[in-house]
Design brief:
The protein has 254 residues and is an alpha/beta fold. The chain is built from twelve helices and eight strands. The mean pLDDT is 94. Its EC number is 1.5.1.2.
Length: 254
């Protein structure tokens, strides 16, 4: 299956790198010549001159553009959409809105996150009713080329975006804040980023591989009257959990 990407911002660029690094032929377009030219040295990258050219050449087209641009781009390409699969990457332009623009066409939502650039995305996939099982299987394999995938019901796509698509930003904020604290107590910033990011990565791996509840894993670190429990108490006092829950709620209430 030949892939197409319209829009080479942070997400589009991340997905393009993931596909191209796995030798998947990918047709690319962005209004910015600079962003297009950034991919000219990839053997499997095909730089196009317009959105329409991408649709004409690809079997599946990913729209990694701003939500407010979707209507404009879909109006440009709709007459060229025959049997191609059109993929939205934002809950702001869901299957219902896609269907209104492209009635009867093959539509799908894919919710990646920016670690796609290093082949570590967590991509949620929500197929429209005209996507066959074989097409879904092939697309899932392709999207798995830059990370892991989950099939998500349409009713859950927004919460998936809130906790997966947005999650890297929350984690980066935590790493930055913890590093600031470490620097204030004398650690070099390079060491702080290196140590903290590995601690985060290792902790996430423990959750996935141990099968234990995160609370139980936390309790294994917090020895009685020890250092960690003092930090945990401070986080609880300052509303650490509530801040995270409120962040997710704010997205859901958008």
């Amino acid at each position: 299956m030949k892939m197409g990407i319209i829009g080479l911002g942070n997400m589009g660029s991340a997905m393009a790198h993931g596909l191209l690094n796995n030798n998947i032929e990918t047709f690319l377009y962005d209004r910015s010549e600079e962003k297009r030219e950034a991919f000219k040295d990839f053997e499997k990258a095909k730089i196009m001159d317009s959105e329409v050219d991408v649709v004409k050449n690809a079997d599946a087209v990913i729209l990694t553009i701003k939500p407010y641009v979707y209507d404009e781009v879909l109006d440009k390409i709709k007459n060229e959409v025959k049997n191609q699969i059109i993929i939205s990457v934002t809950s702001s332009y869901d299957l219902k809105k896609l269907e209104a623009k492209l009635p009867g066409k093959k539509l799908l939502m894919a919710m990646p996150n920016t670690p796609a650039k290093i082949l570590s995305s967590m991509t949620g996939i929500c197929p429209g009713e005209n996507i066959s099982e074989d097409e879904l299987s092939e697309l899932r394999e392709i999207l798995s080329s830059f990370g892991e995938t989950e099939i998500v019901e349409e009713k859950n796509i927004k919460i998936y975006e809130a906790v997966s698509g947005c999650m890297p930003a929350y984690v980066y904020m935590y790493i930055e804040a913890a590093a600031d604290a470490a620097v204030s107590h004398g650690m070099t910033r390079d060491m702080a980023y290196r140590v903290i990011s590995q601690a985060v990565a290792g902790s996430a791996k423990m959750v996935r591989e141990s099968g234990l509840h995160p609370g139980e894993l936390k309790d294994q670190v917090t020895t009685p009257a020890g250092t960690t429990i003092k930090g945990v108490k401070s986080l609880e006092r300052d509303g650490f959990r509530s801040a995270i829950i409120n962040a997710v709620d704010s997205i859901m209430n958008k």
